[in-house]
Design brief:
Structural class: mainly beta
Shape: elongated
Largest sheet: 6 strands, antiparallel
Number of strands: 34
Helix content: under 10%
Mean pLDDT: 92
Distance between the termini: 50 Å
Length: about 475
């Protein structure tokens, strides 16, 4: 099962097909709750389940006092069916205050219940649900109950309830938009510079979805330059930006993902590096770096944007991050998908949001810390072959320069910061004092690894000298 999906595998968000054998239907349009043949178990602390103000739905309000109230269907005979499913539509107000909303079944007239599912939906109406009841095929007297538990909690709405023998269609893929092509991951470097407004390379696809329904959400913001340029990108003009649409006041959970199609044939090293920053994140289910071989089943390889970008104290600052994709255990030697994903409920760069730039795979990784006037800066190059020679290169601007070793992403003129030797663990390091006159200067850095007849350039590092 895709690890993104709810733990209750019986719940599928899908449209209802026309029934062959219908056991029960109820639309609550008579404005009477419980409807004819239905019952309610009410613990007496409120009116419990009742008709909503429109007279077209059943609802339980957020009433004070501890409520443990069950809206119960008539008894249903399932002995003639080979499979059976519950379909319906529900809504939520004040979902953040919800205690428990459960769907249960009873086989003894409401004396005892078995819990099938606990609702986790956010605020909203028209949220479909599907429950597989086939485990109860043959039961002569099954009842379904919607149990509301809570004290001054949420409001819960029910509509369009049906029980029949038609299974819902398969669940939609967690990320509906997938790339149409795969690009080679050998010495791969992606800075999104080639992305222009209105277009994406065929090896990229963006998803901006409602986190619960997984339908396209106009308030989702997943921009790598196909919408507009990225203000404050690590490396202009573009970066991956994820969150709610900037300036939106419609605060709700959206899930964004950039999915990239890669081909791992010929890749020697699956260390994936990138630069990222966050603007006040909370940990959410969709957050992180994910891999898939089929676009349906996803494996998490890196999570929690706050911790991997240096914690709350490092908010808004770019951080160099790397992870070994091979540790996933997946066979990445052919086509695979890489998803960079984030779930959010506030506008991008306004108390929430994540930016990612300068993706690199199958390359050395260069990082620099403490580039501060009058302090000692530390330059580290890792993910290289033990004892290889490392030449850090520096320029004052970004560009494309063809060399005997391949394409360097530094503009000319550039110079060398010396020659380093990697240690037995494949790490090279150098320290240097930062002079006062360098304050405010920005340096573009790449490292060249030389190992026998092989040569590799690192990711691109952009650092500004601070005071």
């Amino acid at each position: 099962m895709c690890p993104f999906l709810p733990a209750a595998a019986a719940i599928l968000l899908a449209a209802n097909a026309a029934a062959q054998t219908t056991v029960l239907t109820e639309d609550f349009n008579a404005g009477v709750v419980p409807p004819t043949g239905w019952t309610q178990i009410n613990n007496g602390n409120s009116v419990g389940w009742r008709a909503d103000s429109s007279g077209t739905m059943a609802m339980h309000s957020d009433e004070r006092g501890w409520n443990d109230n069950v809206l119960l269907t008539p008894s249903m005979d399932l002995s003639a069916l080979s499979q059976v499913f519950l379909h319906g539509v529900q809504g939520q107000n004040f979902a953040a205050w919800r205690d428990q909303n459960r769907i249960e079944v009873s086989l003894d007239g409401g004396l005892t219940f078995e819990n099938l599912y606990e609702e986790q939906a956010p605020d909203g109406q028209g949220i479909g649900f599907e429950v597989d009841l086939s485990a109860y095929v043959g039961a002569p007297g099954l009842q379904i109950g919607w149990r509301y538990l809570g004290n001054y909690a949420n409001e819960w709405f029910l509509d369009q309830i049906s029980v029949d023998d038609i299974a819902p269609p398969p669940a939609a893929p967690h990320w509906a938009n997938l790339p149409s092509e795969f690009t080679s991951a050998v010495a791969w470097l992606e800075d999104f510079d080639s992305v222009t407004a209105g277009s994406l390379p065929p090896y990229m696809a963006v998803n901006a979805l409602h986190s619960y329904t997984r339908l396209p959400d106009a308030d989702g913001w997943c921009n790598v330059g196909q919408v507009q340029g990225s203000a404050g990108a690590y490396s202009s003009p573009n970066a991956l930006e994820m969150g709610l649409v900037p300036g939106s006041q419609n605060h709700h959970q959206v899930s964004n993902a950039l999915v990239i199609g890669l081909n791992g044939a010929g890749v020697e090293d699956f260390t994936f590096s990138f630069h990222a920053r966050q603007f006040g994140e909370e940990s959410s289910a969709d957050d992180g770096i994910w891999l898939s071989l089929d676009g349906l089943n996803w494996t998490l390889v890196l999570s929690d944007w706050v911790s991997i970008t240096g914690g709350t104290s490092n908010q808004s600052n770019w951080r160099t991050i790397s992870t070994d994709l091979a540790a996933s255990g997946l066979d990445l030697s052919s086509d695979f998908y890489l998803a960079i994903a984030q779930e959010d409920n506030y506008p991008y760069k306004d108390q929430d949001g994540v930016a990612v730039d300068q993706l690199a795979l199958d390359r050395p990784v260069v990082d620099l810390i403490d580039l501060i006037v009058a302090q000692t800066a530390t330059l580290t190059i890792y993910n290289v072959e033990p004892y290889s020679l490392i030449i850090p290169l520096r320029s004052s601007s970004k560009g494309l320069t063809q060399t005997a070793y391949g394409t360097l992403h530094l503009a000319t003129p550039f110079d060398s910061l010396g020659i380093l030797a990697a240690d037995a663990s494949g790490v090279a390091q150098a320290q240097f004092n930062v002079p006062f006159f360098a304050e405010g200067m920005t340096f573009f850095i790449q490292a060249l690894e030389l190992n026998g007849l092989e040569a590799r350039f690192s990711n691109l590092l952009i650092e500004k000298v601070t005071k």
